[in-house]
Structure formats: structure tokens, C-alpha cells
Amino acid sequence: MYYEVHGEGGTPLVLLHGGLFNIDLQFGELLEGLSAGRKVIAADFQGHGYTNDIDRPLGTAELASDVVALLARLDVPKADLFGFSVGGAVALYLAIEYPELVRKAVISSVSFNPSGDRDENAAAVGDMKVEMIAGTPMEADYLAKSPHPDHEHLQTLLDKLGGYDRGTSGWSDDDIRGIEAPTLLTFGDADAVKLEHVVRFHQLRGGDVNGDFVGVPASQLAIFPGTTHFTGLARTPLVLDTVTTFLDA
Fold this sequence. Notes:
It comes from Kribbella speibonae. This is Alpha/beta hydrolase. 38% of the residues lie in helices and 17% in strands. The chain has 249 residues and is an alpha/beta fold. It has one domain: Alpha/Beta hydrolase fold, catalytic domain (Rossmann fold, 3-Layer(aba) Sandwich), CATH 3.40.50. Strands 1-3-2-4-5-6-7 form a 7-stranded mixed sheet, sandwiched between helices. Helix 3 crosses helix 4. The chain is globular, with a radius of gyration of 17 Å.
């Protein structure tokens, strides 16, 4: 499992990218700002970036186990998490199943159960072919970094992403309410997650209150304007301010 360490100080922040992305594609523009005054650990997931694929399904539980092993290897007893899409699903899993490892979690552009996904998502991801991403940064980075830089292995990755967590029921309302770590939820206003689901997610985390009367909840919500799923972290200054303010509070 390929990883990088940037900066030093404070609680380590672990960066968890989305499907078809990698450290550079997802967080490259954010790394300098995020690592100013804190240690940042960034990892390439199974089959992504410089990390080889292995003979197992691609799913949240499997990727989360890799992160747990990485933290143990680096002797990190507690960390902050910043996960986007697939990485957001992994961050959510860790916050629920490994609460002792998580101080704060930034969970971006992912639903907590399939009811929050837009109807077109499954078909679009399930039918992905190499030809559909030809000429994109995702294809170029795969061919530049993968230990097996060919289209056959890239198609295998696309097939695994097409079956990602298929058949799982997601998390219950009680699971989300029970998360111990403060969470920052971030989404684009034109994201792959339904906005009514985003609001429900925020409410289950103690949000949607009049903070002037009852106090501002420890868990927060940010909606980035003019932002889709694939451009979810593209507004670098806005994302940096939102995330670092939450982590430093």
C-alpha cells in the first residue's frame, strides 16, 4: 500500500481518495495547505495510484482494514480523517466500527445508505468501460503510476468499482447518531447524493438547530456551490478554509 507523509505536528490527518482517483488527483491542490502545521498521511487505495491490486473484492470493509493496518504500522493511535466518495465511505466505516482510532472525520460526497444515491448512479458506474475514460486524467494517471499500467488491468479496476459494496444495506439512523467523533459533512450542490439525504445525514449528526439558542453543534455541514461529484474538492480555497477550520476548532 503506497502512502506519503507530509508536514508535522498535531493530530495526523489521513486522506482517503475516491474511486478512480489517487492522492494527487484528489488532494494534490490541497496537500500544501492541509499539511501546514499538521502531519498528513495520504494513501493510494487498492488498485489505485501506486498501490497494486490484489485478488479480493473492492469494498469499504476491505479498504478500511488496509487503513487500520497502515495506522498500526505508522504507530498512529488516533487520527483525523478526510475521505471523499469511496474514501468518505471508508472514513464513515472507521468512525462507526473503530471509534477509538478517530478524533474527527470529514466525510465528503457519500451517502450513509443506498437510499441517498441518485437513481442514475448505479448504472453509470456499473457500465464503465476503459473507452469511456479515454483521454481523461484518470486514465493517464493510471497508466503512469499503476504497477500494471495497461488497459486490461484498468478494466478490472472499473469492474470492481462497478460492484463496489453491491448488495450492502448501508448504515441505520442509529449507527449515524451513535458516531462519537465530530463530523464535517461536505457535498456539492449538484452531487451524486440527494440533497434531502444530505439534510437527514446532518440532522442525525445533531445538526439543523438554531445555534444562537442551543449552541453550534460539534458536527457540521458544508454545501459547495456549483459543484458536482467529480469536481467536489476543486474549489481549493473554500475547501481548505472549511476543513481546516473544522479540524482546528
